[in-house]
Amino acid sequence: MNTINDGTRRARKPHRCDECHRIITLGQQYYYQTNVDGSDIWTHRSCIECRRHVALQWDLLDHDADNYMPLRELVLEYEHDGVWPAEVVEGIRTRWGTI
Ligand SMILES: [Zn+2]
């Protein structure tokens, strides 16, 4: 897999965060990453909160795209191991206060 473009933009339409599944609403900033693998091309989108915590916890995450898990699954699966700060667990549970 190769990343051909990434950065932040403002949503011109609603998107779902691929990490926590919250809705990124019109006008909100989000992080995008366009990837290519053979003939497959896709854009991964995440809300700013997820992006920040993915970056902070980068060493805990599996970088192999074949084993990719969204932040939501990673946090909830390892919630009781004390790996994740309490505010991240709470943030993921509430989709950063949106539910
Ligand atoms: Zn998110």
Quick overview of this protein structure:
The chain has 99 residues and is α+β, with helices and mostly antiparallel strands. It has helices at residues 48-56, 71-77, 86-93, and strands at 2-10, 15-16, 23-24, 29-37, 40-47.
Number of structural domains: 1
* Estimated share of beta-strand residues: 25-35%
Question: Which cofactors or ions or other ligands sit in this model?
Answer: zinc ion
Q: Strands of the largest sheet, in order across it?
A: 1-4-5
How does the overall form come out from the CA principal axes?
A: globular
Major sheet characteristics: 3 strands, antiparallel
CATH class call: Alpha Beta
Number of strands: 5
Structural class: alpha+beta
Overall mean pLDDT stands at: 89
Q: Give the low-confidence spans.
A: none
State the CATH architecture. Answer: 2-Layer Sandwich
Helix-strand pattern, N to C? EEEEEHHH
What is the oligomer described by this structure?
Answer: single chain
Helix content: 10-25%
CATH T-level topology: first zn-finger domain of poly(adp-ribose) polymerase-1
What is the end-to-end distance? Answer: 33 Å
So how many helices?
Answer: 3
Using the CA coordinates, give the radius of gyration. 14 Å
